[in-house]
Amino acid sequence: MTILLLFLALVQGLTELFPVSSLAHSILVPALLHLQINRAAPWFLPFIVVLHVGTAGALLAYFWRDWWAILKSLVRTRGRATEPESRLFWLLVLGTIPAGLLGLILEHWVRNLMAGFTVAAVFLVVNGMGLWVGDRLKRREGARRRLDELRPGEALSIGLVQATALIPGISRSAATLVAGLATGLDYEAAARFSFLLATPIIGAAGLLEIPKLFLHHTGAGPFLGAILLSGLLAGLCALFSIWFLMRYFRLREVTALRPFAVYCMLLGVGALLLH
Asked: Which residues have C-beta within 8 Å of that of residue 236, sequence separation ≥ 6?
C-alpha cells in the first residue's frame, strides 16, 4: 500500500502544476496500469487532503517573496490598489472568485457526471489542442505585456477559464496559461499569474476537506505514516515542477507549450486505443 500511495503522490505532484491535467492522470494512469484503487476506502480522503496541502505548500514556498511583497503593499496602501503588488492582489481575487464559486457549486456534479475514463481521455486531447493554440497565439503576437499591465476584466476572464479545470482532462495551469497568453502576457508573466492564482484554489481544496476528517471515522490510522510521506513527496515534486516550468518559460519564447500539447494528445489518443 505504501508503494501505491507514493506512486500516486508522485503522479499528482508532477502533474498538478504541469499543464497536463492531474485529474486525468489520476483516472487514466491507474486504469492503464491495472492498479486497483478504492476511492471509497477510509484512507483515500485524508490522502487527497494531504496531497493538496503539500502542493499548496510548495507554491507558497516558491512564491513566498511575491506573497510577502503583496502583504506589505496591502498594509502600506490600506488595501487600495495604488501599488503594483496591491493591485496584483486584487487581480488575483478577481481571478479566484469564478473558479471558487463554480467549484463550490458544480464540482461534485461535474466530476460525478464526467469522471469516466473515456471522458478524461477525450478532454485530455482537447487540453492538448488548447495548448497548441496557445503556442500559435504566442507566435502571432509582437511585443508582450508585463503582469502589471493586466487589466481587471482580463484577470476575471482568466479566472473564468480556470473553472474549466473542473472537467477531467482539462488542466488548470494549461487553461490559465493559454488565457494569459491570449491577453498578451508573455510566457513568464502568464505562468507567474497562473501559479499565484492556483495557490488559494489548491490550498482551499485541501483545507475545506479537513473538517470531514474529524466528522467521519476515516480508519486511516494504519496508513498515516505513508499518507504524510506521500504529502511530502507531492510537495517536493510540485516544487520541482514550479522551478522547472518558470525556468523553462523564460528560456523558450516561441514553442514552450508544444511539447505538452503533443504529450496530452498522444496520451489521450493512446489511452482510448489501449483501454
From this structure: 13, 58
